[in-house]
Write a structure and sequence with these properties.
The complex is a heterodimer of chains A (about 375) and B (about 280).
Chain A lengths: L7 E6 H11 L4 E4 L6 H10 L6 E4 L3 H13 L4 E5 L1 H17 L3 E9 L5 E5 L4 H5 L9 E3 L4 H18 L2 E7 H5 L1 E6 L43 E3 L13 H16 L6 E4 L6 E5 L1 H16 L4 E6 L1 E3 L3 H8 L4 E6 L5 H8 L5 E5 L8 H12 L1
Parallel strand pairs in A: 2-3, 2-4, 4-5, 5-8, 7-8, 12-13, 12-15, 15-16
Antiparallel strand pairs in A: 1-9, 5-6, 7-14, 11-13
Helix pairs in contact in A: 1-2, 1-6, 3-4, 9-12, 10-11
Chain B lengths: L28 H14 L7 E5 L14 E4 L5 H11 L4 E7 H7 L1 H10 L3 E7 L34 H8 L3 E6 L3 H13 L4 E6 L3 H7 L5 H11 E3 L10 E2 L3 E9 L5 H20 L1
Parallel strand pairs in B: 1-2, 1-3, 3-4, 4-6, 5-6, 7-9
Antiparallel strand pairs in B: 5-9, 8-9
Helix pairs in contact in B: 1-6, 3-4, 4-5
The chains are: A alpha/beta (about 375), B alpha/beta (about 280).
Amino acid sequence: MRGEILTGTYFAQGDWACAEGAIAAGCRFFAGYPITPASEIMERMALRLPQVGGDFVQFEDEIASMAAVVGASYAGVKAMTATSGPGLSLMAENIGLALMTEAPCVVADIMRGGPSTGQPTMAAQGDLMQARWLTHGDYEVIALAPASVQEMFDLTVEAFNLAERYRLPVLLLADGLVGQMYDKLAIPETDRIRVESRKKPTVGPGDYLPFQADDSLVPAMACFGEGYHFHATGLTHDECGYPDMSPEGQSRLVTRLCAKVRDRAIMRVDTYHLEDAEVAVVAYGIVARSARRAVDLARERRLRAGLLRLAMVWPFPAQLLDSLSRRLKAILVPEMNCGQLVHEVRGAARGCPVHSLPKPGPIPHSAQEILEAMEKVKI
Amino acid sequence: MSREKIKFPLDGLLRRDRFPHLWCQGCGLGIILGAFCRAVQEADIDLDRLVVISGIGCAARLPGYLNCDSFHATHGRAIPLASGAKIANPDLKVVVIGGDGDLFAIGGNHFLHAARRNIEISVICSNNLNYGMTGGQQGPTTPLQALTKTTPFGNWEEPLNLVELAAAAGAAYVARWTVTHTQRLTRSLKKGLEKEGFAFIEVVSPCPAIYGEMNEQGSAWQMWEELEVVSRIQDSILPSEASFDLHERIICGEFIDRERVGYTLRLRQNRNMARQEVLAGYG
């Protein structure tokens, strides 16, 4: 239908771009609850989804929203929700359900200051570890970290593709500044946008085991109403989907759920002047933009600086950090929180010292602040 | 269909490999399962389109025994999950089965709003007056003064009248039965399946192994007999007057059966409006 993907160039808001990215990726169901600074995503979806044959529902809370997303995903429709820290906390249990039942879906978290109500209209990057260890139990997650309005579009499309490929909830972890800022957005032609869909069963209902995976470790997904009469449960389950309380059952399922992400070396990073760098900055989101400028300023002062920008924060590129650290003198980790990513970097980068540059928000680091810190750590 | 293949009339509706079931002796859930299967048969529901969704608890294990698509979700969240499925594919026949704690304590808010929206799902509540799966704690329908594991000196909280709540929130169909009313219950479940709106059916179901034991209600047989004795059928009474006194009088019947526009129908109207605007805009 005309108008499904609004190809063109815009001066757009990050949240708006996220909504358009979702529609371009084939999302046709959105459930959510108002929350600053993410509400513009749902407002855009409320307008756009019915135009393209989808449905938007404002639920009674974030718990219901996330449950509805899982239900819609199992009914065969690409589904998402969007929220901020307090809402993400409420979604935790049903994000766990989506992980356990392998329901592909996308959760956008537009980060504000916390804990608790915190600073609703202000930006922060305090949900990094929450995104990784949101729900109880053992699992692996995928979280993308856009740093621009364009990436709010591009990485939302990518989030849906990853969710469909690996059958799990994928987080779009954007700080409030990236969600709220206006910048140039280019929406490509429809045929230039790569869209993936979940693998469907190739066998009939009699031979279908809903949670039996091939070498990809990702089972083919039948949906409600397709005649497969399958059972899905948040309990530990066997290949048939039936509850399995045995030690082997727990080990088999949880190991596969972790391995389907761990074994794939999923990674998305940008490097900037890292080839000959002595000092590297590791950053994501809005802070990575200041860091890039800081690298330029440092190079003007003949300080060999570089940047590793994480466009995907989870899984964390530990091996890359380790090898990188062996040819660096120091790593600096500026982030808009009291120090979260730095622990992950320290754990991986064993070849050089790792320094933290925390700033709890709402104002991101300036390039000057990062530059000064780089000059200090270099010594 | 040879005799060897079909051994029981409900075989086609059940996952035979899942039996024996996990419910205690004297529990009412087997009757509810049987009545639900008969209602599905009588309403001639296509099993390929039927989805039964539950949260957590004894009743929430029921969908696992049904030969259709089934989903066992998180505690209290079956209704929003079912809403998402129904909205995403309105051709599905979506049913939620749960207990009183699952649907009205942890999940109470979702019940309220699903009834308000009048989404076209059937919600069946097996009301056994306590949390059975976790060992017999007090719940939102536990009678005053009843003994439970968390009310060792008696329950001091007024129980909820589920049918009154459902009616006030806007449900299109509201009924209450006990497991001793198998024929009427089956008819009611069938009506719920056929209703193009939010249908709520409460089924009072004895829990002799836990609740009965703690409250010295005698054997399972005695509990079932008492249910039959105290229940009175009074259709069309105001739901607010459908009183529930476990040992004196439980008013049963069909309290609400009204026409309201279903939610997915309204969403279709919403899409039509949106598309007309797009067509006009792109004209």
